[in-house]
Structure formats: structure tokens, C-alpha cells
User: Fold this.
Amino acid sequence: MSRPDILLYTANTMNGWKPLIFLHEAGIDYELAPVDFGKKEQKAPEYLKLNPNGRIPSIVDRGAEDFAVFESGAILWYLAEKYDRFLSHDPKERSETMQWLMFQMGGIGPMMGQAMFFQRIAKPNGDEVPYAINRYVTESRRLLEVLDTRLAGRDWLVGEALSIADIATYPWARSHFWATVSVEGLPHLQAWFDRLDAMPRVQEALQLPEPRPSAFGEGDVARAAKENAARFR
Ligand SMILES: N[C@@H](CCC(=O)N[C@@H](CS)C(=O)NCC(=O)O)C(=O)O
Assistant:
């Protein structure tokens, strides 16, 4: 049996789930290389050759002379072009997909990421900064309101079908519990969550490389919070 083209380095985090969602939903064979933060594998010199930022995810395309791609948005775009999935051929729709992908990469991800960092990592590790928590939670809520407005009267962020913009945004927005950002009064966003929650292959991806911690508010939240604080200390 031949080796799959895509070798995916990832972990069970919001950015880490994005390529997993793409590959599972598209039904593409790939090889999974879990990255252990506890062992700082993402900072190892060999790994930094693939991802100079020392973070996950990264891919290596063995079908293209071991071409390496880092940054989750760029990975989704690369996979979309390679496999011709989840990205329209229409120039305007492609641009809209890029716009919402950038909105996730430059807004939703960093703001919700910092809301999570200050509450789930800094605070339990002894450094509570209320001003930062308030700033990032408030800004995250504002960004989720932008998504809700966009989703009024439409099923997907762009066009008539799932795109890489949805794939990038869902793991972050859906983890609003972990960032303690309310989604009360955002019915279009919640309907979009329901749509993606009901997709078995999307949900399958969210259990890799290991079962999802309590990012969506499920399971033993206190234990997940403790383990997470230690994992990123
Ligand atoms: N902009 C990057 C962010 C990647 C990122 O922050 N990854 C986190 C997990 S969600 C990570 O690798 N954290 C481990 C570390 O900071 O050492 C992307 O979208 O790929």
C-alpha cells in the first residue's frame, strides 16, 4: 500500500483541529503525527524546519517533494487547492472565502486565544490580569456578533456550501465556553453550530489526535482545566 501524501503534525487544539476537519470531511487518507506539547516537540530543531514558528499544525506533502506548509489558514488553502475541495472556483466567492478565513486568522483566533490564555493558563498558574480578560472576552463577543450577522439568512459563511472559512472558524467559535464568551442572543451563529455539530466526520476529527478536552463545555471541566493549565505552563 502506498503512503498517503499528507503527513499532518497536530494536537487536539482549535488550530490543530482545522486540517483534521478538512481531511476527514473530504475523506482524504493522511498520516497523523501527534505533537506532544508536554515534551515540547513543537520546539524541536527538526520540527522548526517545517514550522519556524514552533507551533502546530504543519503538513508535509510527500506527493510534492516533501513540501512543508505551516499556519493553519495557509494549510487549509493549500489542501483546498490540492484536492479541489471547500473552495469555490468563482473569483468573487474565492475572495469572500479568503476574507472570512483572514477574519478568523486575524480576529477570532487571536482574540479568543488570548481570552482562553488569560483565563485558562495565566490565572490558574498564578497570574490573573482582569483588564486583559475583560478586553479579550469583550472583543471576542463582538467578533461572534459579526459572525452572527453574517450568518443571518445563510447556512454557511460563504456561498451555498461548507468552505475552508467555516472549517477554520468552527473550532474556535464553537469553543466559546472555554473562552467564557456568551453566545446568548446569537441565533444564527447557534444554528450554524448545530449544522456543524450534526456532521459526523467533523465530530470524528474533533476527537483527534486524542479525545477532545472540555473545550465545548462537556465532560469533567475542572479536570480538563487543571490538565490544560499544566500542559501550557
Ligand atoms: N497562527 C498559527 C497559530 C498556531 C498556534 O498557536 N498553535 C498552538 C495550538 S492552538 C500551539 O502550537 N501551541 C503550542 C505552543 O505555543 O508552544 C496557526 O494558525 O497555525
